[in-house]
Amino acid sequence: MEAFLLDEYFLYFIMNLRRKMNKPKCCQKMPYVQKGKKKKYAWCSCGESSNQPFCDGSHKGTSFTPIVIDNEKEGNIAWCGCKETSNAPYCDGTHSKL
Ligand code: FES
User: Is the bond preceding 53 in cis, omega lying within 30 degrees of 0?
Assistant: First the structure.
């Protein structure tokens, strides 16, 4: 019985670790559309930040790093919220297939 619980705990641990190492957390299945300014932004790629769509350092301990862009023009930016885009940090419509 104890061995079973240990195995189950170990499996849970490994699955959680794999999630943290490989798969970002989906924050929302739509983009964050915001008016961008001429400045640098660090987009959260792990989905763990509490300051979405931007990095707050929560990626520490995961395999993810933020994507930093130097935005050069003002205007609306559609930041990916699902973290599955192929055009990070911008929405490419992938969220509609999730
Ligand atoms: S919000 Fe991620 S692709 Fe649109």
Answer: yes
Atom of ligand 1 nearest to the CA of 87: 3
Tokens linked to 91: 């929405």
Closest CA to 31 of 85, 69, 97: 85
Give the tens place of pLDDT for each residue, 81-97: 999 999 999 999 999 99
User: If 0-12 CB within 10 Å is exposed, 13-18 middle and 19+ buried, where does residue 60 land?
Assistant: exposed
Determine which helix (DSSP H) or strand (DSSP E) holds 79, and give its type and residue range: strand 75-79
Mutation test of ligand 1: which of 67, 77, 82 has the most ligand atoms closer than 8 Å to its C-beta? 82
Task: Give the global pTM.
Answer: 0.79
Q: Is the pLDDT of residue 77 over 60?
A: yes
